[in-house]
């Protein structure tokens, strides 16, 4: 007996292909967040005002990653400054959109004890090319798995990019933010903690 129907595996699709596409879609959703995804703030008592990042209200975590020259840099080098720790990548559109704002505010407030430490989860060459083309002056560190581990230590359990952490002059994590940082949000952080 013959039939005109295609074999069963052609009609239903390949199960591994479907599973793989589902994983890719999930990664795409968590890899690059959009503006105003989430912000968590520590209150005066140091307790999280909203659930999310376990790191909010706690002392900053130290880590070491190479900079764009390949020199090992310890995050504790910036102790005493108000720091926005930003995890990003050159392939992430929301990450790229917030960089000019970061550079503008860094140039404006660096002398007042404000810095941005950008951790690129990317290749050194791609990151160096981007920083050079956009005249980025704030510190940029680079890494892969070790950079993602640092991001996770700061509450980014889902691996969302961009992901920003506001650390006050005493080394206390005050806020975490998933997704693109807006001008209003960054200015609010500067008013509150600088």
From TrEMBL:
InterPro entries: AhpC/TSA, Thioredoxin-like_sf, Thioredoxin_CS, Thioredoxin_domain, Thioredoxin_ResA/DsbE_sf. Residues 54-194 form the Thioredoxin domain. SUPFAM superfamilies: Thioredoxin-like. One of its GO terms (molecular function) is antioxidant activity. The keyword Hydrolase does not apply. It comes from the Bacteria. PROSITE patterns: PROKAR_LIPOPROTEIN (PS51257), THIOREDOXIN_1 (PS00194), THIOREDOXIN_2 (PS51352). Gene3D superfamilies: Glutaredoxin. Keywords: Redox-active center. Signal peptide: none annotated. This is Thioredoxin.
């Amino acid at each position: 007996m013959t039939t005109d129907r295609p074999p069963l595996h052609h009609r239903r699709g390949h199960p591994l292909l479907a599973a793989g596409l589902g994983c890719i879609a999930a990664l795409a959703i968590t890899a690059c967040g959009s503006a105003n995804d989430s912000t968590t703030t520590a209150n005066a008592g140091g307790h999280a005002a909203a659930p999310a990042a376990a790191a909010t209200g706690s002392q900053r975590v130290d880590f070491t990653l190479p900079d764009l020259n390949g020199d090992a840099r310890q995050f504790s080098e910036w102790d005493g400054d108000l720091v926005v720790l930003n995890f990003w990548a050159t392939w992430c559109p929301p990450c790229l959109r917030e960089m000019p704002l970061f550079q503008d505010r860094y140039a404006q407030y660096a002398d007042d004890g404000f810095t941005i430490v950008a951790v690129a989860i990317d290749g050194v060459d791609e990151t160096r090319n981007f920083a050079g083309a956009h005249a980025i002056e704030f510190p940029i560190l680079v890494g892969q798995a070790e950079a993602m581990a640092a991001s996770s230590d700061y509450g980014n359990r889902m691996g969302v990019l961009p992901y920003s952490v506001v650390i006050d002059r005493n080394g206390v994590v005050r806020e975490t933010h998933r997704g693109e940082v807006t001008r209003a949000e960054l200015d609010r952080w500067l008013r509150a903690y600088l």
